[in-house]
Amino acid sequence: MSEADRDEMDVRRAVVLDYLAHGLSDDGRPQYAKSPAGYAVGIEDFQLYQVAFDEDERLTIGSEVVVEPPAERDIVTECHRVEYEDLSSGAQSELEYVVADLVEENEERFVDFYNDAQPITLRLHQLNLLPGIGKKLRNGILDERKRKPFESFEELSERVSGLHDPDEILVERILEELRDDDLKYQTFVGRREQEQNQ
């Protein structure tokens, strides 16, 4: 792996969920001392961030920004991780749409999840963590992928009887992982960090 590839891997990008031009409401500093702030969700691992933005930049919800490493940031001046409950109500309501867009834009990556999902324990498979996927659907997916890997969400729906909206199922699972930090198994949220720690 070249150093350029390694550097590219270490750059974390996020999508802005909420932009607060006058700063955070719980920031006790006077208005003139507050910088524009907001919330963002990581593109690769769906980590949630509270961020402060450069005052000279005007952003909109859905803008892509670099959150890590600090040396690579151009618009973000400060950044730290937060939990779902810490998000503004605007960011919470935007989250589902942004996650759905990210799943759609990265279709190959998420279709590969259906192709590559493995057993977690003798009785539990990664596919069973997805909402609405029981034994019958799981076995249908496993049987079909043995014949030939899936190439799109559409193909998944066509080849696996009873599997409707495989992309929406993933969005639902990602949102569940974001909202409930006590889940035993995290399949999508924080994945990158888990892989780096192995």
From TrEMBL:
UniProt xrefs under Gene3D superfamilies: AF1531-like domain (1.10.150.280), Nucleic acid-binding proteins (2.40.50.140)
Short name of one Pfam family: DUF655
PANTHER family assigned: DNA-BINDING PROTEIN (PTHR40734:SF1), TRNA-SPECIFIC ADENOSINE DEAMINASE-RELATED (PTHR40734)
Record protein name field: Adenosine deaminase
Organism annotation: Natrinema versiforme JCM 10478
